[in-house]
Design goal:
By secondary structure, the protein is α+β, with helices and mostly antiparallel strands. The chain has one domain: Lipocalin (Beta Barrel). It is 15% helix and 48% strand. A 7-stranded antiparallel β-sheet has the order 2-1-7-6-5-4-3. The protein starts with a helix and ends with a strand. The N terminus is likely disordered.
């Protein structure tokens, strides 16, 4: 009987520790199973959305660079700057240095083992908008260095 009580306590502690990865310790990295969707409403219906999946190690300090679209040539001079951090969310402003008028923002919500972020962008000089969404679930400790 004592073994069962001890096992139940260890399981509860493990689950509690996993649930606090994004909220309690911004330096703690964990591996997440991510679904990444980009939506471009100005394109034809069959080209409007693209979805990918990947495993990635993240912590709260990685959120400003987590959106893959930031590595695209159209946003090469842009980065996300933290504007608000809370225990369960973070908000960012897109800052671009190229003078082309591109604007945007990103918002993240984290609730225990799940994270969700959306970045909205309006390309300057064009009446074109798009978004990228990331949703993920923690699958375990980070195995990458």
């Amino acid at each position: 009987m004592n073994r069962m009580v001890a096992l139940a306590c260890l399981t509860a502690l493990s689950l509690e520790a996993r649930a606090q990865v994004m909220t309690a310790d911004s330096n703690a990295r964990a591996q997440y199973d991510l679904t990444i969707e980009i939506g471009m409403p100005h394109l034809d219906e069959n080209l409007r959305y693209a979805t990918t999946r990947e495993l990635r190690c993240l912590n709260t300090k990685d959120l400003a660079r987590a959106f893959p679209i930031l590595s695209d040539v159209s946003l090469q001079d842009c980065s996300l700057a933290l504007s608000e951090q809370r225990s369960d969310s973070a908000a960012y402003t897109l800052q671009c240095t190229g003078g082309h008028g591109t604007t945007g923002s990103a918002n993240w919500k984290f609730d225990g083992p799940t994270i969700a972020g959306t970045m909205n962008v309006r390309l300057g000089g064009k009446n074109m908008t798009f978004h990228q969404r990331i949703s993920g679930r923690m699958v375990g400790p980070c195995t990458q260095l």
